[in-house]
Amino acid sequence: MLIVDLLTAAAQAAPQNKFGFKEALEQGGFIAYATVVILGVMSFGSFFILFTKWFEQRKILSQYSALRATFWRAPSLKDGAAKLEKNSAWRQIVDDGLAAEEAHGKMTDALEAHDWLHGSLARSEASVNARLASGLPFLATVGATSPFIGLFGTVIGIYRALIKIGAAGQASIDAVAGPVGEALIMTALGLAVAVPAVLAYNFLQRRNKSIAEQLNGFTVDLLAYLVSDGAVKPTVAAAPAAAAAKPAAAPTKA
């Protein structure tokens, strides 16, 4: 019983940690809490955009693989469009191309009809690229501004440390450790939010460029098909080679 009392008294007499993360926020007050909340929202938004855009890109790329295998083998564009997933980027371009083909019959000039089809497909392609690029400006903004938001918390922490030093008349560790620790935490949080956002932006942007190249190639092939009335198709649409002839049967013995 005596040992338990001694341990309890020692624990109560031990100095409490005044320099933890929670304590640093309490010392920083409203500015520290606001900085952490803003950086937290930025971090959550960055990871949300990263995963949602990655799934969207992955879906479009997988649809492109299926399109190359089945779309151009269809007897007509309408039959090929029926094989594509509804509300997909590829289906949108084909539907817009078919709608433009129906509208261009009202034009008497063949050149104007070609320009109309080209402009309609280009507009449809641009809308798909714009949808893929949505959210990336937020990642760029987070990567550019979150270090400065953390630096703002750092400046406030250093300012509070200097105020304590001036009030105490001496630069004791106990007086400045808390505010300086708070300042360093804010800097670290700002960098921890900025680095993933920049990496996510570059990753998604690179994949968007790859998808844009595929969209452009598909649009060019579709335009050639429309203006030639189906006479021009991409090489991937060539019919599979005929099966090799079976070897002749061995002659039967007399």
Structural notes for this entry:
- The protein has helices at 2-13, 21-70, 77-82, 89-104, 110-133, 136-168, 173-227.
- By secondary structure, it is mainly α.
- The chain has one domain (19-231).
- Helix 2 packs antiparallel against helix 6, helix 2 (21-70) runs parallel beside helix 7 and helix 4 (89-104) packs antiparallel against helix 5 (110-133).
- The protein is rod-shaped, with a radius of gyration of 33 Å.
- It starts with a helix and ends in a 27-residue tail after the last helix.
Cα separation of the termini: 112 Å
Helix and strand sequence: HHHHHHH
Structural class given helices, strands, pairing? mainly alpha
**Which quaternary structure do these chains form?**
single chain
Strand tally: 0
Strand content: under 5%
Please give the domain count.
1
Question: Nutshell version of this structure?
Answer:
This protein is mainly alpha-helical and 254 residues long. 77% of the residues lie in helices and 0% in strands.
Tags for this model:
single chain, mainly alpha, 7 helices, rod-shaped
Task: Show the helix and strand layout.
Elements lengths: L1 H12 L7 H50 L6 H6 L6 H16 L5 H24 L2 H33 L4 H55 L27
